[in-house]
Amino acid sequence: xxxxxxxxxxxxxxxxxxxxxxxxxxxxxxxxxxxxxxxxxxxxxxxxxxxxxxxxxxxxxxxxxxxxxxxxxxxxxxxxxxxxxxxxxxxxxxxxxxxxxxxxxxxxxxxxxxxxxxxxxxxxxxxxxxxxxxxxxxxxxxxxxxxxxxxxxxxxxxxxxxxxxxxxxxxxxxxxxxxxxxxxxxxxxxxxxxxxxxxxxxxxxxxxxxxxxxxxxxxxxxxxxxxxxxxxxxxxxxxxxxxxxxxxxxxxxxxxxxxxxxxxxxxxxxxxxxxxxxxxxxxxxxxxxxxxxxxxxxxxxxxxxxxxxxxxxxxxxxxxxxxxxxxxxxxxxxxxxxxxxxxxxxxxxxxxxxxxxxxxxxxxxxxxxxxxxxxxxxxxxxxxxxxxxxxxxxxxxxxxxxxxxxxxxxxxxxxxxxxxxxxxxxxxxxxxxxxxxxxxxxxxxxxxxxxxxxxxxxxxxxxxxxxxxxxxxxxxxxxx
Length: 480
Fold this sequence. Notes:
Oligomer: single chain
Distance between the termini: 42 Å
Mean pLDDT: 77
């Protein structure tokens, strides 16, 4: 699912918040619906009592008194019309059946089982029935002031009903057979959102979000520590073990990680000791063979014999260096990269090799001098072995130091570039030592660059040849 966050922390927070917010929204909607129904029914009962009281009063008045009383009651939100004879309305629009039955049942309980028609329905939102009172310092509206003065007891209802969308139609028979038709807007506060409840819900949601963030962070932090330790393990196998603390699952994972690190360290030590033993055991026969080569009558055969012995020593030394590495043997110093490159350029030029250096200001780099010198030497040797010249350039910024080494050789197929770092792998088809080395130089260079927390990659140049790119962080992570 692409829309999910990529990190475990983000996914856990998303799942928790989505579930909690969904449940809160659903429960809030149910609560507000219940509140709306309760307020609506309470308002309906109150309106039914007022209507029943008015009907009972009209039952006691004569025709002339009824007209005067109804004239006083008239307003935009309350329309009353008196008919000589009660007649059921046949063209009335249907309304909400549940609300209509509820209102009818309440009125019948108050007025008795007399003929009546009650319809409660929703109506479109309208403009305010009365203008708002004038602000201080503004001229008033004479018509609105007169209407308010005529019906002072309706002023609160007018202000509360300005957003009402619930209308009541009633057709009731009076005791003398006359008909009373009423159209009234019910109170609008039953459909208004309670601001205090919304504020409480907002506080609850914010509290849940904060608690979820803290809980998920506490739960995922040990995993982040474990992932960081696993990443650093590739750079420094001798890093301190993880502290075994926290929940039981985290302690088990930390303990298993420390056990794995100890086994890897033990395996590396055993391999290094084996290679050291092989190297030591090979020194004696190689020395004897070199001495015997001095007594050969054929000088050309002796030279070839000594060259083979030198290649054997070179291979053994390279294999030992690859297995052991040399980064742990040095201390960190501040290196003048430009001076180091100029020194290497002079050494190669003394040997008749062409090494070009693009000079530019480079800040000092905190690293291990011999290790970086060996990295550059291996890469320059590789460039000069397969090309006629090598070009070195740098790109410096506050976060990283990037060194490029380009050659003018034939290049390497794209599918073989990464294999060049494998031990004893050589892209050149033959194993001729005149056109290549032992196949360990690039692997050793990458090992030493990785020990500094950097990366070493190879790529074909568009103009031909191969480019080696070294990226070193300004805060290197070096093996202790």
